[in-house]
Write a structure and sequence with these properties.
Layout (H helix, E strand, L loop, with lengths): L1 E4 L2 E16 L2 E12 L3 E5 L6 H8 L7 E6 L2 E2 L7 H5 L2 E4 L11 H11 L5 H14 L15 H13 L5 E5 L7 H16 L4 E4 L3 H7 L2 E6 L2 E6 L1 H6 L4 H7 L6
Parallel strand pairs: 4-9, 4-10, 7-8, 8-9
Antiparallel strand pairs: 1-2, 2-3, 2-5, 5-6, 10-11
């Protein structure tokens, strides 16, 4: 999707315009406008209840929105026959919970989507899965069941499973929130690696040091709107809004 921004034009993989979501009289998202370019890592931060997770769920069709449009690679979801089934093949999502099938091995969990949904050949997907498992340091665990893995290992498997669908953009929703502190680093390292390799990502996190390290752009959300945005350096060194300053003052930065 090409969008004019002043004198320049920008290509967006994900474009959101005027997105609104309410539960009854409570507005959770109140007119979100956002464009994410190929290879860009965008991190959404803000206080609990500000709409971050709801934004991700709307992008992935897990929540319905009342107003606004969502476009993937220039195609509006719901228009011209482009439905959520098609859109989700372009969007990978990893949640706080791992959502691995307990009765299936690691490899079985990874192969399921590409083979059943995308109708790809087992040999092709297995080769890709082996390479990704090696990348995240779990090549020797492919025949294990989820109960045999630590929380950090399960989360890395969930990331591999999403990547094997060959998405255009990855969504991460507080993927370290349920992990013990010593397991957090192994998951964040994988995500940092993806960012350095050019994966397009929209990340919700409360890990501020991680946000500083991974983000090309930071969105500060408050009250259902994007209250401030800018580069990671600009935002963390000199936020422009008093609300963002108060939020950052609750964290310690070296």
């Amino acid at each position: 999707m090409t969008m004019s921004t002043g004198a320049a034009e920008r290509e967006y993989i994900l474009e959101i315009e005027g997105l609104k979501k309410s539960y009854g009289d409570m507005a959770v998202l109140d007119g979100i406008n956002l464009g994410i370019e190929s290879g860009e890592a965008v991190v959404a931060i803000g206080p609990s209840g500000c709409g971050k997770t709801t934004l991700l769920k709307c992008v992935n069709g897990l929540e319905t929105h009342q107003e606004g449009t969502i476009k993937i690679d220039g195609r509006e979801i719901g228009a011209d026959g482009f439905d959520w089934r098609q859109a989700r093949q372009k969007i990978g999502m990893v949640f706080q919970s791992y959502d691995l099938f307990p009765h299936m091995t690691v490899m079985g969990n990874i192969l399921l989507g590409p083979m059943q949904v995308q109708k790809r050949k087992r040999e092709e997907v297995t080769e890709q899965a082996d390479a990704l498992l090696d990348r995240v340091g779990l090549a020797d665990r492919k025949n294990d069941f989820p109960r045999q893995l630590s929380g950090g290992q399960k989360q890395r498997i969930a990331i591999v499973r999403a990547l094997c669908m060959n998405p255009d953009i990855m969504l991460f929703d507080e993927v370290t929130a349920s992990l013990d502190p010593e397991m957090v680093r192994e998951v964040l390292d994988v995500m940092l690696g993806l960012a350095r390799q050019g994966m397009t990502m929209l990340i919700v996190t409360h890990e501020m040091e991680f946000a500083k390290a991974v983000a090309d752009r930071v969105l500060f959300m408050d009250g259902g709107i994007i209250a401030e945005e800018g580069s990671a350096r600009e935002f963390f060194e000199k936020p422009t809004t008093e609300r963002a300053q108060r939020f950052l003052n609750t964290f310690y930065f070296e």
